[in-house]
Design goal:
This protein is an alpha+beta fold and 648 residues long. It has helices at residues 3-13, 15-40, 42-45, 54-82, 84-92, 97-138, 150-177, 180-185, 199-220, 230-266, 273-285, 290-315, 317-324, 334-346, 410-415, 448-451, 462-470, 494-503, 515-568, 573-606, 615-645; strands at residues 329-331, 351-357, 359-364, 383-389, 402-406, 422-427, 432-441, 457-460, 482-488, 512-514. A 6-stranded mixed beta barrel has the order 3-4-8-5-7-6. A hairpin with a 4-residue loop joins strand 6 (422-427) and strand 7. The protein is elongated. The model is unreliable at 46-51 and 189-194 (pLDDT under 50).
C-alpha cells in the first residue's frame, strides 16, 4: 500500500472525527471573509463618507484574526489528541515520525482548504445581509448589493494560510515530542485528582472571592468622589482590572472547589448519583481548566461590557440629542438665525422661535455640593456656567436673591451631585453677588455650545442678570451671546426643514445644530461601534462556546467507561442524564454568571458617560448573550445523552 492509498483510507476511516474540525474551519472562514468584505464593499463608498469606520473595521479584523487563530489551534489540539492512538500504531508498524507527519499534512491540506473554500462561499452569501444590518443600525441611505471582493479573498487566503502553517507546526511538535507509550495514554489521561482539599486550596478559594469583591467595591466607588485626581483614577482602574482578573483565576483554581466541597460536606457523605456526576466531576476538572476559563470569562465580560456601553449610547441617542439641542434647530448666530427664518418663510414652513440672552459667569458652588471631591476636573469655587434671566423661561418667578439651576443629566448627578438648597456666589468681572440656591431642574434650555454638554445653566432674577451682564468678564464670554431655538410647528415638515437647514450657507456652521442631524450622527458613530463590537462579541461567544463544548465532548469520551459501570449497576439513562444536566449547568453557568457580574459592575461604574438609559439596553444585551451561550450547554447535554446510550 502506498502513501496515497493510506491517506485516502485514513481520510475515509476518520470522517466521523472530522466534523468538529470541519465546523471550526467553515465557521471561522465564513465569519472572517464576511467581515473583511465590508472593507472593500463599494456600497460603503456610495454613502459618501456617512460611515467613517474603515480604520475601526481594519482594527476589528485584526482582533478577529486573533480570535479565529486561537479557536482553530484549540480545535486542532482536540483533533490531534483523538488521533493519538492511530499515530502510535503507525510508529509500532515501523513508520518514521517524519512520514507520519507527511500523511497528516496531506490529509489536513485537503480537509483544511476544502473547508476554507466552503466557508468563503458561505461568508460571501451572508455578506449582503451583514452590510444591510450595518446600514439599518447606522440609519445610512445606501443600497446593499451582493459583491465578491478579490481583495477580501486574497486577505482571507493569506491569513488562513498562516494559520495552516501554525497548525502544521503544532502537529509536528506534538508527533516529535510524544513517545509511543505516551501516544496510547493521551486520550485516557485525566486531570490530577486529589481526594481531600488542602489548606492552600482553601486559602486560594477565599482569596479569589476577596479579590473579585474588592474589584467590584472599587468600581462602585470610581466616580463618587473617592478618587480626586487623574492619577488616582488611573490607579483605581488598573487595580480593578488586576484584582478582577487575578480573582477570577483564583476563583476557578480554588473557590469553585472550595464551595462545592462545602456543599458536599453538608450532605454528610450521602451523595446521590446526580452529585457524583456533577459536583465531584466539576471539583476535579475546573481547577485544571482555570487559565482557559479565566480567559473566556474575562473576554466575555469585556465583550458584554463594551456592547452594553455602545448600545446605551445608541439607545440614548434621541434623549442625549434633546439635551444638547433642546429645540429642533439651535442657532447661536443672529445673522444665521435670520437667514434660516427667511428660508422657512419662503418655503411656507410654520415655526416658533425662542430667543435667550446668555452670559458666562463664574460661580462658587462649594457649599451646595454633596461632596466637594465629586468633581476633581472642575474648580467648584469658580465654576464657569452659562446664566440666563427668568424672563426667558415661561411661568418662572424668582426673588432677587434666588438662583435656580437647570439642565441636569446622569453624568452631572454622578460626578457633581448638588444639595437641594444652600448659598452660592455669582462672580462678574468685579462684582460678587451672593445668592440662595433653590433647586435643580432636569430640563435643558440651551444648546451644547453654551453648556459644554455637562454644566448646568443658572437662572436668576432679571435685575441680577442685567447687573452681571454689565459687569461680565469678557475673557470668559462666548463668541455669541444669543441663543435662538426654532421649533417646526408641523412635524410633517420637519424633514423638509432639516434639508433646508443642511443647504444653508451659514457664516459659521460650528455655532448651529440640528437635532435630527445630531441624532443621526450619534446613531451612525455609535451604531458602527456597536456593530463591530457585536460582531467581535458574537465571534468570541461562538468560539468560546465551541471550545467549552469541545472540552465537554473530550471529557465525555474519558468518562464513558464510568457510564458503562453505572449502567451495569442498574442506573437508567434518565438517572445519568439528570446528573449531566446539573454538571453542564455548572460548567457553562459558572463562567456565564461570573462574566455577567464582571460586565454588570463595569457598566454600572461609568455608564452615565455614554447615555441616559442603562437598564433596558443592558438587560437586552445580557439576555441575548445568555440565550446564545445556553445553546452550547444544550448541545453538550445532547452529546452526553448519545455517549450514555452507547455506554452499554
Amino acid at each position: 500500500m502506498n502513501i496515497n492509498q493510506l491517506v485516502f483510507r485514513n481520510f475515509k476511516k476518520n470522517v466521523k472525527n472530522y466534523y468538529l474540525y470541519v465546523f471550526a474551519l467553515i465557521f471561522s472562514a465564513a465569519l472572517y471573509f464576511a467581515f473583511v468584505t465590508l472593507q472593500y464593499d463599494p456600497a460603503l463608498d456610495a454613502t459618501k463618507g456617512s460611515i467613517k469606520g474603515g480604520a475601526a473595521v481594519r482594527a476589528a479584523s485584526v482582533l478577529l484574526v486573533a480570535i479565529v487563530s486561537i479557536f482553530l489551534l484549540y480545535a486542532n489540539t482536540i483533533f490531534i489528541k483523538r488521533r493519538s492512538k492511530e499515530i502510535g500504531l503507525f510508529q509500532l508498524i515501523g513508520m518514521t515520525k517524519t512520514r507520519i507527519f507527511r500523511i497528516l499534512t496531506v490529509e489536513n491540506f485537503m480537509l483544511y482548504f476544502s473547508s476554507l473554500i466552503v466557508g468563503i462561499l458561505i461568508g460571501f452569501s451572508f455578506s449582503k445581509v451583514i452590510i444591510m444590518i450595518l446600514f439599518k443600525i447606522t440609519d445610512t441611505k445606501g443600497i446593499a448589493k451582493l459583491h465578491f471582493s478579490e481583495e477580501a479573498l486574497i486577505q482571507t487566503l493569506i491569513v488562513f494560510g498562516v494559520i495552516y502553517l501554525l497548525i502544521m507546526t503544532m502537529n509536528y511538535l506534538f508527533i516529535k515530542r510524544q513517545t509511543i507509550l505516551a501516544l496510547f495514554r493521551v486520550t485516557s489521561s485525566t486531570e490530577g485528582k486529589t481526594k481531600k482539599i488542602s489548606i492552600l486550596e482553601i486559602i486560594i478559594g477565599i482569596l479569589g472571592m476577596t479579590f473579585i469583591a474588592c474589584g467590584y467595591y472599587i468600581s462602585a466607588k470610581l466616580f463618587d468622589g473617592s478618587f480626586t485626581s487623574m492619577n488616582a483614577l488611573a490607579i483605581a482602574m488598573i487595580s480593578i482590572l488586576a484584582s478582577v482578573i487575578i480573582g477570577t483565576y483564583l476563583f476557578y483554581k480554588g473557590s469553585v472547589r472550595f464551595l462545592l466541597n462545602l456543599m458536599r460536606k453538608s450532605k454528610k457523605g450521602y451523595l446521590s448519583i446526580n452529585d457524583v456526576l456533577s459536583l465531584s466531576s466539576i471539583m476535579f476538572r475546573m481547577k485544571s481548566n482555570a487559565l482557559l476559563l479565566t480567559v473566556i470569562t474575562t473576554v466575555s465580560a469585556l465583550a458584554i461590557g463594551f456592547l452594553c456601553l455602545s448600545y446605551i449610547s445608541y439607545y440614548s441617542a434621541e434623549k442625549s440629542a434633546g439635551d444638547y439641542v433642546p429645540n429642533d434647530f439651535s442657532i447661536n448666530n443672529t445673522k444665521d438665525a435670520a437667514s434660516f427664518k427667511a428660508a422657512l418663510d419662503r418655503k411656507k414652513i410654520a415655526y416658533t422661535e425662542k430667543k435667550i440672552d446668555v452670559i458666562q459667569v463664574k460661580a462658587n458652588v462649594k457649599s451646595i455640593l454633596e461632596n466637594e471631591l465629586k468633581s476633581p476636573m472642575v474648580d467648584s469655587s469658580a465654576m464657569m456656567i452659562p446664566m440666563i434671566s427668568e424672563k426667558s423661561v415661561n411661568g418662572l418667578n424668582l426673588a432677587q436673591n434666588e438662583t435656580l439651576f437647570t439642565g441636569y443629566n446622569n453624568m452631572l448627578q454622578k460626578t457633581m451631585a448638588f444639595k437641594d438648597s444652600g448659598q452660592i456666589e455669582l462672580k462678574g468681572k468685579q462684582k460678587v453677588i451672593p445668592q440662595k440656591f433653590v433647586g435643580l431642574n432636569r430640563e435643558f434650555l440651551l444648546s451644547i455650545y453654551f453648556t459644554g454638554g455637562g454644566l448646568p445653566t443658572a437662572i436668576v432674577d432679571d435685575a441680577v442678570f442685567n447687573e452681571l451682564k454689565q459687569n461680565a468678564d469678557p475673557s470668559i464670554q462666548k463668541e455669541s451671546s444669543i441663543y435662538t431655538g426654532i421649533d417646526i410647528s408641523n412635524e410633517d415638515n420637519l424633514q423638509k426643514a432639516n434639508e433646508l437647514f443642511g443647504e444653508m450657507k451659514f457664516s459659521d456652521n460650528s455655532l448651529n445644530d440640528s437635532r435630527i442631524d445630531m441624532i443621526r450622527s450619534q446613531k451612525q458613530t455609535m451604531g458602527l461601534i456597536m456593530f463591530i463590537v457585536a460582531f467581535l462579541g458574537l465571534a468570541f461567544l461562538l468560539t468560546s462556546g465551541c471550545i467549552l463544548y469541545f472540552k465537554q465532548m473530550d471529557e465525555s469520551e474519558d468518562e464513558k467507561p464510568n457510564y458503562t459501570i453505572l449502567r451495569k449497576l442498574g442506573f437508567t439513562e434518565k438517572d445519568l442524564l439528570n446528573g449531566i444536566k446539573i454538571k453542564q449547568l455548572f460548567n457553562f453557568g459558572i463562567p456565564l454568571i461570573v462574566g455577567l457580574l464582571h460586565s454588570y459592575f463595569a457598566v454600572q461604574s461609568g455608564w452615565f458617560w455614554f447615555g441616559t438609559e442603562v437598564w433596558t439596553p443592558m438587560i437586552i444585551v445580557m439576555v441575548v448573550y445568555t440565550a446564545l451561550y445556553s445553546i452550547f450547554g444544550i448541545l453538550s447535554v445532547l452529546y452526553y445523552k448519545k455517549i450514555i446510550k452507547e455506554a452499554l
